[in-house]
Amino acid sequence: MTRVTDTLLTALAPAVWGSTYLVTTEALPAGYPITLAALRALPAGLLLLALTRCLPPRAWLGRAMLLGSFNFALFWVLLFVAAYRLPGGVAATLGALQAMMVIAMARGWLGTPVRAGAVVAAATGVLGVALLLIGPEAALDPLGVAAGLGGAASMAAGTVLSRKWQPPVSALSFTAWQLTAGGLILLPLALLVEPPLPPLTPLNLAGLAWLGLVGAAATYALWFRGVARLEPGAVSMLGMMSPVTAVALGWIVLGQALTPIQALGAIIVLGAVWAGQRANRPVPVHPAARAV
Hints:
Elements: H1 3-17, H2 20-27, H3 33-52, H4 58-85, H5 88-96, H6 98-110, H7 116-133, H8 142-164, H9 171-193, H10 202-229, H11 232-238, H12 241-252, H13 260-279, H14 287-291
Helix pairs in contact: 1-10, 1-12, 2-10, 3-4, 3-9, 3-10, 4-5, 4-8, 4-9, 5-7, 5-8, 6-8, 6-11, 7-13, 9-10, 11-13
């Protein structure tokens, strides 16, 4: 497949993740973030394991647990802490810093060169997310800010390490390993710190099915496929599609107002994502240099 196709398929994942806020607020019971995260990850992971029939070898168990923690367990817990203690716009803007963290981590762990254009695109994307989401009620809670930065760093580390550690299996199997590991970490934590869930309604079950089957199993398979094919900096910029989708769904489905500043922010984010793809392209090697 062409690079454009790989980029579009990978971008589909964060675009779908943008529906998480809408589904969580409209279709799931409030006050059970870790339990719902475990129910999102573990059943999806086990289903993919059953479909792929591919268990991680013993040498990969530690890596699968670490990646499952970074990409799911730690990331989702810190994300919920930030969401509870900060206005949504502030939390999302801190999360957008992930793109800049990926550039630094990829340099240290993968030896990827730091390109000025990629840094500028990432910084511009953060500005766009801030314009898109931060309102006059924005406030900074120290613990919430720490959780937001920690969540961004966790996802950034998971993205770079997922590129560094590529098992000889399909993206679907790699996703299954990580989702299952993340769910196994989240489940005992949920049992310890949260009360039991109330009886789930059909709407609750539909919301969990969407977040688990589509928002986790299918989309993370596309995401890890993209991580294996595209540069880490390019992949991380695509994550900024999530807040754009979230705002668009709020406007279309919930009738929320869309101000001119927010529209400008969305345009800036989309422009930064496009620029980030160009800035992170590998430099082609001249045939004569390759022959030498």
